[in-house]
Design goal:
147 residues; mainly beta; Neuraminidase; four-stranded antiparallel beta sheet; 12 strands; elongated
Amino acid sequence: MQSDKYRIYQHKFSPDGEWVTFEALHGNRSRLFVAALRGNGLPAPENEWIPVTVDEGWADKPRWSPDGNMIYFISNRDGFFCLWAQRVDKSKHPIGTPASVAHFHGSRVSVGNVGSGGVIKISIARDKIAINLGELTGNIWVTNFSH
């Protein structure tokens, strides 16, 4: 895939092999798209990409549901890196707005504690979602010194 406007990452093929979802990075923002795969196996050109998310911040790690009717992803659309899902129709256009799946608003356990780049992982199964979270803890020790 090529684009003059975006750097493209995180390609994932749909379960039926007819579509690809991906992250398009532009500056410090990213959004998700879906593109149909042509008979030659190449994705549709940029002017036919279907936006899954709006250009409002960061969206990353798009993953298809097993039936291909939902795209799960990480986004900071609410100010925190949380897990979201966007339902799509048969033509892979979004239906409604993304729904929150799991919020990670605390500072102790968060997607944001994992790090950036390829370290964050999401796996989707029929009845489970696996996502890695980072946990931060701290301790304060007090002692009495006697001289």
